[in-house]
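Weekly sync, protein design subgroup
Attendees: M.S., D.O., the rotation student, P.L. (late)

Item 1: inverse folding check
M.S. brought a backbone from last month's batch and wanted to see whether the design step gives back something sensible before we order anything. D.O. pointed out we never logged the input encoding, so this time it goes straight into the notes. C-alpha cells as presented (442 positions):
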C-alpha cells in the first residue's frame, strides 16, 4: 500500500492509540507521540497498555510495516507531518471542570516547534470555546518566534466506545468536522474516506458546535440511562417490571431500544466526567443545567441499589458472610475500572463486615491495585468464585456470565441467592432452581 498522509497523533491513550493505529492501517504514516517514555518503549515491543479487542495485532502489524512510529519526539513528528491530532486526556478537576492543562501545553509546544503550515485537530473531548483558545496559544508562540506559518484548528470529536474501539473507528456512525476552512475539511474527508463509505456520514459544522456535539451526545446517553434507572426505582415500588417497560418504551421508533438498560449505574472515564464538565460549562456562563445535575445524582445513588438489596436480605451487618462477585470492570469488553460500580459495591460489603471472592476476565490485575487488599480474594475461573460463598452478585455482564450453570450455583452457594446488577437472568428459570433472585427494577 502506498503511504498517503503523514500524521502526528499526540497522546497514546484510548483515543490516540486507536485513532493512530486505524489511520496507519490505511497505509498512512502515523507518528504516535507520548511524553511517557516507558509507554512508548513498551509499545515498540508490542506491549499495549490497555485491553481492547483487535488492537494489539493491528499495532504490531503496522509497527512492523513502519506505518506507525512510536516516539517521544514531538519536533521530529511535526516536521514530518502536515496534520496533527491532539488526543490527550481531559480529566475532571476537583470542581468538575475539564482540566485542559495537557491540551494547552501541547498547543504551546505545537506553536514552538512547527516549521511549516499545519492542520491541528482536536480529538480530545474539550469544552466549547477551547478551539479558539488553542488558536490564540499557537498564534502567540508563532508571533514570539517571529515566524508566520499558516495553521487551522479543527474540532473532530471522537465517539468510539471502549471494548469496540477499533470497530467503532473503522465504521463510525458519523465523522464530525468542526471547521470553516475548506482545505482542512477536504484533507480530513480524504483521510477518513476509506472508513466512511457513505459520505452522508460526514457532518461539517462550526468548531464550537462540534465541541458541544460531543458533550451533548454523551450527556444524552447518560440521561437515558439515569432516566431508566429512575423508572426502575419507581417500578420496584409499584410492582411494574423495568424489563417489560423497556420493551414498551423502546419499540417507539422515535425512542429506540439502545441505552435503555437499567442497572447499577454507568461508569467509565467518559460519562461521569463529561456530564460534570457540561454542568460546569453551563454554570460558567450563568446557566444551571438542572437535568444534568439529576442525571449525575441518580447515577451516584444507583451504585448503592444492589448493596441496599443485599442489606434488606441479610441485614445491615454482613459479618461472616462471603459474597461471590462476577465482573469488576465498568462494562464488558474492557479492563477499565474507572468509576466502576464494583468499587462501590465491594467497599460497602467490606464496610458492613462481609468479605468478597471475585472473578473478572480482564480487570483483576488492575483491580488488585484499586480495591482494598484485606478480605478480597481473586480466583481465575468463573465457577471457582462460588465455593464457600453465601450469595452471588453480578456486576458486569461479560458474555461468560450470561448463561451460567444455575444448578451448580444452587448447589454451591450456601443460601442460593443472586443479586443481579444488570438484569441478565430470567426470574422464572431461577425460581425453578430454587434460587432467590433480586434484580433491578422489579
Ligand atoms: C462512551 C460513549 O458511548 C462513546 O460514544 C464515547 O466516545 C465515549 O464514552 C467517550 O466519550 O470517549 P464508553 O465510556 O466506552 O463510551 O462506554 P459505554 O458503552 O457508552 O457505556 C457507559 C456506561 O453506561 C457503562 O457503565 C454501561 O454499563 C452503562 N450503560 C450503558 C447502562 O447502564 N445502560 C445502558 O443501557 C447502556
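Designed sequence read out in the meeting:
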Amino acid at each position: 500500500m502506498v503511504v498517503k498522509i503523514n500524521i502526528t497523533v499526540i497522546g497514546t491513550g484510548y483515543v490516540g492509540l486507536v485513532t493512530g493505529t486505524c489511520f496507519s492501517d490505511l497505509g498512512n504514516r502515523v507518528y504516535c507521540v507520548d511524553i511517557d517514555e516507558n509507554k512508548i518503549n513498551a509499545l515498540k515491543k508490542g506491549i499495549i497498555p490497555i485491553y481492547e479487542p483487535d488492537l494489539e495485532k493491528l499495532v504490531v502489524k503496522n509497527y512492523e510495516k513502519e506505518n506507525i512510529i512510536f516516539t517521544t519526539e514531538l519536533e521530529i513528528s511535526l516536521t514530518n507531518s502536515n496534520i496533527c491530532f491532539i488526543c490527550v486526556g481531559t480529566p475532571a478537576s476537583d470542581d468538575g471542570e475539564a482540566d485542559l492543562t495537557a491540551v494547552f501545553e501541547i498547543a504551546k509546544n505545537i506553536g514552538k516547534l512547527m516549521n511549516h503550515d499545519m492542520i491541528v485537530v482536536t480529538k480530545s473531548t474539550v469544552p466549547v470555546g477551547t478551539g479558539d483558545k488553542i488558536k490564540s496559544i499557537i498564534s502567540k508562540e508563532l508571533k514570539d518566534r517571529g515566524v508566520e506559518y499558516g495553521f487551522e484548528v479543527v474540532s473532530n470529536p471522537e465517539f468510539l466506545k471502549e471494548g469496540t474501539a477499533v470497530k467503532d473507528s473503522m465504521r463510525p456512525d458519523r465523522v464530525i468536522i468542526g471547521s470553516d476552512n475548506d482545505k482542512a475539511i477536504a484533507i480530513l474527508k480524504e483521510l477518513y474516506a476509506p472508513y466512511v463509505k457513505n459520505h452522508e456520514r460526514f457532518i461539517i459544522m462550526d468548531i464550537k458546535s462540534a465541541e458541544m456535539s460531543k458533550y451533548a451526545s454523551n450527556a444524552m446517553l447518560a440521561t437515558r440511562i439515569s432516566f431508566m434507572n429512575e423508572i426502575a426505582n419507581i417500578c420496584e415500588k409499584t410492582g411494574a417490571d423495568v424489563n417489560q417497560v423497556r420493551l414498551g418504551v423502546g419499540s417507539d421508533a422515535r425512542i429506540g431500544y439502545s441505552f435503555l438498560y437499567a442497572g447499577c449505574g454507568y461508569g467509565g472515564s467518559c460519562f461521569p466526567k463529561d456530564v460534570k464538565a457540561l454542568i460546569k460549562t453551563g454554570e460558567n456562563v450563568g446557566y444551571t443545567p438542572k437535568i444534568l445535575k439529576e442525571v449525575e445524582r441518580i447515577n451516584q445513588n444507583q451504585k448503592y441499589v444492589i448493596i441496599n438489596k443485599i442489606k434488606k436480605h441479610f441485614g445491615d451487618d454482613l459479618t461472616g458472610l462471603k459474597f461471590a462477585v462476577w465482573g469488576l470492570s465498568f462494562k464488558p469488553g474492557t479492563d477499565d475500572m474507572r468509576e466502576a460500580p464494583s468499587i462501590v459495591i465491594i467497599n460497602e460489603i467490606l464496610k458492613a463486615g462481609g468479605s468478597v471472592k471475585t472473578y473478572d476476565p480482564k480487570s483483576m490485575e488492575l483491580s488488585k491495585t484499586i480495591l482494598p487488599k484485606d478480605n478480597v480474594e481473586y480466583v481465575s475461573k468463573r465457577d471457582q468464585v462460588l465455593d464457600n460463598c453465601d450469595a452471588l452478585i453480578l456486576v458486569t455482564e461479560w458474555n461468560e456470565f450470561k448463561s451460567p450453570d444455575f444448578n451448580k450455583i444452587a448447589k454451591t452457594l450456601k443460601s442460593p441467592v443472586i443479586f443481579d446488577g444488570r438484569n441478565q437472568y430470567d426470574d422464572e428459570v431461577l425460581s425453578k432452581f430454587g434460587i432467590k433472585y433480586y434484580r433491578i427494577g422489579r
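Discussion: The pocket of uridine-5'-diphosphate-glucuronic acid is lined by residues 125, 158-162, 218, 221, 225, 259-261, 263, 266-268, 270-271, 330-331 (CB under 6 Å). The first strand starts at residue 6 and ends at 10.
Action: P.L. to compare against the previous round before Friday.
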